[in-house]
Design goal:
Radius of gyration: 21 Å
Largest sheet: 5 strands, mixed
Helix content: 25-40%
Number of helices: 13
Number of strands: 18
Length: 400
């Protein structure tokens, strides 16, 4: 009974009332715009945008998009290269009260068609590089007559949004609304759309802001992950909800380590997230401003722990599948830490290790990892059978 109490109650005593007012990341971003309008929000190569400037651009696009009759439950796909337009588009779609769906421009055509047909959308946002290709792909889609391709880059560069208002939209966004849909790789069949709600996204950002001890207004954080991977969610919204800088890395420039390190030092980057295998290739000790190295997406290599633990910056291990709103667990290594594991659950998340009959495994036993809590995805889009199979009731949680 003592061990059961430890596994169910003590180790999963994660409740934190971190959202009493029912806010979303849109609210958090807007609060930062209002309190720090002159802080630099976005850096891409030689381009810089303050929170005030970024918000005006986001609002102009949002006011344009809302006229496209983006009803509740609509998903808006993005086919964009890395650039400020990618961030502007994501924020604008969220401000419209609907969810965005990131699509990599280099996806195979059949994968893009599958996603567009699966989400049954009415609009696709692209940039100059992908405008022509998307027009050709859409012709082959079953719902092609309903699809409008909007070139976001052209809207701004040709001043086509000048008549659009720059005020915030008066749209009530609930924590139960959908925020984004990320498609799995499809390695075990057709790609599955994982639907994440605002409640999980808000919990992730507020939890990590506290866990990482972010210095409000003084961080410089790298967007390294491709926006089709959920790690990008953390990397984008942590800085944009803490009045800090989001530094967009540009394609493949990290292949030149000297160029990469110089870029990080020039922008005084304090926070980097990447995989363990990538951390083996780069000497992050050369980044003089670094406060945190966050590793996820694969097993943390002991070689990396030995290399980076006990340095001036913190080494952090994060774990979570797409279905768990990016991260479900985290571990911050201390100067004396030697044990390599995925740590403890984030606030308002639960972790259990169970056997084939979904019974608790004793400490030290081997079983399957089950995740629950507010971070859990809503569903697999248009796949109720798989959703019922994978998203099961929690036998260890009461309704109290």
């Amino acid at each position: 009974s003592q061990e059961k109490n430890l596994l169910i109650d003590k180790l999963n005593d994660t409740y934190v009332d971190n959202n009493p007012d029912g806010k979303t990341v849109v609210d958090l971003f807007q609060e930062n715009v209002e309190c720090s309008p002159d802080n630099v929000a976005l850096v891409y190569k030689d381009e810089k945008y303050t929170y005030g400037q970024l918000n005006v651009m986001v609002n102009k696009l949002a006011n344009y998009l809302v006229n496209k009759k983006l009803d509740d439950g609509v998903f808006v796909p993005l086919v964009l290269d890395r650039s400020p337009y990618m961030i502007i588009s994501i924020l604008a779609v969220l401000k419209c009260g609907v969810a965005y769906v990131p699509i990599a421009p280099d996806y195979p055509v059949n994968r893009i068609k599958h996603i567009l047909e699966d989400i049954k959308t009415c609009i696709v946002l692209v940039d100059n590089n992908n405008y022509k290709d998307m027009d050709e792909i859409i012709v082959e889609c079953n719902n092609s007559s309903l699809l409008e391709v909007v070139n976001v880059q052209m809207l701004f560069e040709d001043n086509l949004l000048e008549d659009m208002g720059s005020n915030n939209l008066d749209i009530g966004i609930s924590v139960d609304d959908d925020a984004y849909v990320i498609y799995t790789s499809g390695s075990t069949g057709k790609p599955k759309g994982v639907v994440i709600k605002h409640i999980g996204l808000h919990n992730l950002i507020t939890s990590l802001t506290t866990a990482y001890d972010l210095d409000n207004g003084k961080e410089s954080m790298l967007l390294f992950a491709n926006y089709t991977f959920d790690a990008s969610i953390e990397q984008m919204f942590l800085p944009l909800t803490s009045s800090s800088k989001l530094i967009i890395s540009y394609d493949n420039f990290w292949q030149d380590e000297t160029k990469f390190i110089n870029y990080l030092n020039e922008n005084k980057v304090t926070h980097i997230g990447c995989t363990s295998s990538f951390a083996k290739q780069i000497d992050f000790e050369k980044v003089k401003s670094l406060k945190r190295l966050v590793l996820g997406g694969e097993k943390l290599d002991n070689e990396i722990i030995n290399k980076y633990n006990k340095k001036e910056f913190k080494l952090i291990n994060i774990y979570g599948p797409t279905e768990a709103t990016v991260d479900a667990t985290y571990k911050i290594y201390s100067k004396n830490t030697e044990e390599n594991n995925i740590g403890k659950p984030l606030p308002n998340n639960f972790v259990y290790i169970l056997n084939d009959n979904q019974k608790l495994i004793p400490k030290g036993g081997v079983g399957e990892l089950y995740l629950g809590g507010v971070g859990l995805a809503k569903e697999y889009l248009n796949n109720p059978e798989l959703t019922s199979e994978k998203f099961i009731s929690n036998p260890y949680q009461t309704n109290e």
